[in-house]
Design a protein that fits this description.
heterodimer, A: mainly alpha, two-stranded antiparallel sheet, 2 strands, 76% helix, B: alpha/beta, 6-stranded mixed β-sheet
């Protein structure tokens, strides 16, 4: 637990250093309004990273999040075109995302297919479904109602609604993971599935719930994304799932499951968000941006690996005397 | 006759346990030596010393009269000592020939693997042990007996002169066992020295030429098979009880708690029936693989029996999952606590409260103060030594991890607690604490089932002992009838008069 907390603190420290470094080249970056913008820009990544983190906790991975987001976003845009009221659209996006997540979860649970294979398949199926629904057509800004587009940008107490949604999700899942039996069972399932069974936890069911949470968050983000950018088409958020997984890895979520925290996932997402936002303003070419994001991932993994090493030594020291 | 391999004065200890103390072992060319002893007698440790996996602290190993040291497994293989284990270490996806030659395959003059020489060599080696197995078959398609043949052919391909067979028949069918006997005869004819480890007396008397007996990590005796009978051998094996002290207790046996009737499983066990009373410790003895753990796992809802039922406090309970079992008041502390018991990455207190989460929360939210209280209550009772309950479980020693796993189950306030090999692999101090604690639990009215393969533990702790063999209950003894000889005979299937 201590190591985990330390890891979060370390990451927060690295994030502050990063922001400070950018501020030296470009002081305007640290103006409150800009920081709010960066956070707002990173909100979709934060939402998906929280869902992904829960899935990874249970020893699975969800590669279909971005496709799920795109499909639910398109559904939201089409419902809007049919004149469905906004609250119902929001509900539909969340439920649809959750249902798509349940498809992943059930395939993993009932058929025992590895999650990476399941979600690689559903990822393509979800994207294909968008094409079937629209024939490849775009839904553009002028086809969306004003209320539909305005909600994510509406500012409450100095923050856009999209940021508030991310903050609410952070708070909600922080409580779920640290203070509820369900949250504890995610850690137990990933930490040692065999022992979890012996403790009366249904491993497959727990994994399925994790996929449903990840899916529901992707569905919600789908609406926010489409409304904010005021466009929906087959390829929105293409390849975004890799950034989501990267945010989790940087955030110290153990890829083998059983260890990680919401705070870690959020910090990992913010770290990537700051890099993505800062590099253009300090004039670094987009090619370097990808290399720098990639290096951040490799360094994070290397740090995690070295942090895990001394643990083994401690065990040996306890065992060898006597 | 001079032995090929000779071990003298070998000692090996692990934290808190002397696994081997000044033992000796001789292996002669063209002869089968049976190594006999109870579980925990040190048989597998000596095999690991022989094959270079463990290095002894004291003692000498002589090979053909020359002192040798096996620094690692490779050194032992190079010297011609090879072991064939219960679960053979081979590769299912490779062919028979590839398995035999892996790591030392014949090469062509270009440095590539010479497939033709490999196939021919494999066929010759297999023929040498009387087998006509096709070298091109995929290993995964073969049965266990054929895999043994491949493992032995592989051993011979490295010019092994000493072959260790570690319970080779445990997983074999009747017919396959006879094929193995023929194979052992073939190896003898080639002048190999064979160490044969088995619990089955009929096998030992059939194929061994010599015997060596270990007990509690010490050498007891050796000799020729034709000069000893079963009774004398059993007596050497069990000996007098060890200088291990068990808590004295005056059992107060109450009404029946758990009644199991006509429990059947298609492959693991048949017709299991017994009754367990309040305040009673019921021992389950048998050889490894006798089906004891399988029965317990069915009771705990891990597997489902095809027939038969369970009554607790005279109420029929249907157990289909571990969740049902815990709700019915049955808990199971598994044998393999690393895999099945402990979640090493979680803190101690979270491990303990995991099955009791509904009791430490309010309105669906966990309350950390109550979690800590529950964890503290039970870890204090078990005298757990840990810096803090916040510590990761994986940082504790084996004995302390075992205590946490037991505390976890006690915290669910069960009626029946099943302990599967509760003291396997833990040091003597922790062992005594676990025994003490079992006595306390029984005194408080809990019904305890203890599965154990250690005779002293079974006799020292149980009020009654059920012996299982090949998936069935073969004997039930209590009081003065509980003698080491009777348990060993029942478990090994030796007739009373022999």
């Amino acid at each position: 637990m201590n190591i985990l907390k330390n890891r979060d603190v370390l990451l927060a420290f690295a994030l502050v250093l990063l922001i400070g470094g950018v501020a030296m080249r470009f002081p305007a970056f640290v103006r409150p309004t800009n920081l709010v913008n960066v956070f707002n820009d990173t909100s979709p990544l934060i939402l998906l990273a929280i869902g992904q983190m829960i899935v990874i906790l249970t020893k699975c991975i969800d590669l279909s999040v971005a496709a799920n987001l795109a499909l639910c976003g398109m559904a939201a845009a089409l419902l809007n075109g049919m004149g469905v009221p906004l609250p119902l659209i929001l509900l539909a996006a969340v439920l649809m995302g959750g249902a798509l997540g349940a498809v992943n979860g059930l395939l993993v649970w009932k058929l025992g297919i590895p999650s990476i294979v399941v979600t690689l398949g559903t990822m393509t199926i979800f994207r294909g479904s968008i094409f079937l629904m629209t024939g490849g057509a775009w839904v553009n800004a002028h086809q969306m109602s004003d209320g539909f587009k305005a909600l994510p940008r509406m500012v409450i107490l100095g923050l856009p609604v999209m940021s508030w949604v991310a903050l609410a999700a952070i708070a909600l899942f922080f409580v779920v993971l640290t203070r509820t039996p369900l949250g504890r069972s995610f850690y137990a399932v990933g930490g040692n599935p065999h022992a979890a069974v012996y403790t009366g936890i249904d491993v497959g069911r727990t994994q399925c719930i994790a996929f449903m949470i990840s899916g529901a968050l992707a569905g919600l983000t789908g609406y926010l994304w489409v409304a904010r950018y005021a466009v929906a088409y087959v390829d929105i958020a293409g390849g975004f799932e890799l950034q989501v997984v990267a945010a989790c890895v940087i955030g110290g979520i153990a890829i083998v499951g059983g260890a990680g925290s919401v705070i870690g996932a959020v910090l990992g997402a913010l770290f990537l968000g700051v890099i993505n936002n800062a590099l253009p303003v300090i004039g670094i070419s987009p090619f370097w941006q990808m290399a720098i994001s990639g290096s951040a991932i490799v360094i994070a993994v290397a740090l995690n690996a070295t942090q895990n090493r001394p643990k083994g030594r401690i065990i040996l020291k306890e065992v060898t005397p006597t | 006759m001079q032995p090929i391999l000779s071990l003298r004065g070998i000692s090996k200890s692990f934290p808190g346990v002397k696994a081997l103390q000044n033992v000796q072992l001789d292996l002669y060319p063209g002869q089968v030596t049976a190594l006999i002893g109870e579980n925990g007698a040190g048989k597998s440790t000596i095999v690991k010393v022989l094959t270079g996996i463990y290095q002894p602290e004291e003692g000498t190993i002589t090979l053909d009269g020359q002192n040798v040291q096996f620094a690692n497994a490779q050194a032992a293989t190079d010297a011609g000592v090879t072991a064939i284990h219960q679960e053979t270490v081979l590769f299912d996806e490779l062919s028979v020939a590839e398995n035999i030659w892996l790591g030392h395959a014949p090469r062509t003059r270009f440095g590539l693997i010479d497939r033709r020489a490999m196939r021919k060599g494999a066929r010759d080696l297999l023929a040498g042990i009387g087998s006509t197995l096709d070298p091109d078959l995929r290993l995964g398609d073969l049965g266990i007996a054929s895999k043994h043949l491949v493992a032995i052919a592989r051993a011979l391909s490295t010019d092994a002169r000493v072959v260790v067979l570690d319970e080779p028949t445990a997983a074999l069918s009747h017919k396959e066992i006879h094929e193995l006997y023929d194979l052992v005869e073939a190896l003898k004819a080639q002048g190999k020295a064979i160490l044969f480890i088995s619990h089955k007396f009929d096998e030992i008397f059939r194929i061994a030429d010599r015997y060596t007996v270990f007990r509690d990590g010490q050498f007891v005796g050796e000799g020729l098979m034709q000069e000893i009978g079963e009774t004398a051998l059993v007596r050497m094996m069990v000996g007098r009880s060890v200088d291990q002290i068990f808590p004295t207790r005056t059992p107060k046996i109450g009404p029946p708690v758990l009644t199991v009737a006509g429990y059947d499983h298609p492959t693991e066990f048949a017709d299991i029936r017994f009754t367990l009373h309040e305040g009673e410790i019921l021992g389950f003895y048998g050889l490894v693989g006798a089906g004891r753990s399988e029965v317990m796992q069915a009771l705990f809802g891990i597997t489902t029996p095809s027939k038969g039922g369970v009554r607790i406090d005279d109420k029929v309970r249907v157990i289909r999952s571990t969740h049902d079992a815990i709700a019915a008041g049955i808990v199971y502390v598994p044998e393999d606590r690393g895999r099945q018991g402990a979640i090493r990455g979680l803190p101690i207190f979270q491990n303990i409260t995991l099955p009791s989460l509904s009791r430490v929360g309010r309105n669906g939210f966990l309350r950390m103060a109550e979690e800590f209280k529950l964890a503290r209550d039970y870890t204090q009772r078990l005298d757990l030594r840990a810096a803090s309950l916040d510590q990761e479980l994986g940082l504790l020693s084996g004995g302390n991890q075992q205590k946490v796993v037991i505390a976890k189950w006690l915290a669910t306030k069960p009626r029946v607690i099943i302990l599967d090999e509760p003291t396997k692999g833990i040091d003597i101090g922790s062992k005594a604490a676990v025994h003490e604690f079992m006595a306390e639990l029984a005194a408080e009215g809990l019904a305890v089932i203890m599965v154990s393969s250690e005779i002293p533990e079974v006799l020292g702790m149980s009020d009654r002992v059920i012996v299982m063999r090949e998936g069935r209950i073969v004997d039930e003894v209590s009081g003065d009838a509980m003698t080491p000889e009777r348990l060993v005979r029942a478990a090994a299937g030796i007739a009373e008069a022999a």
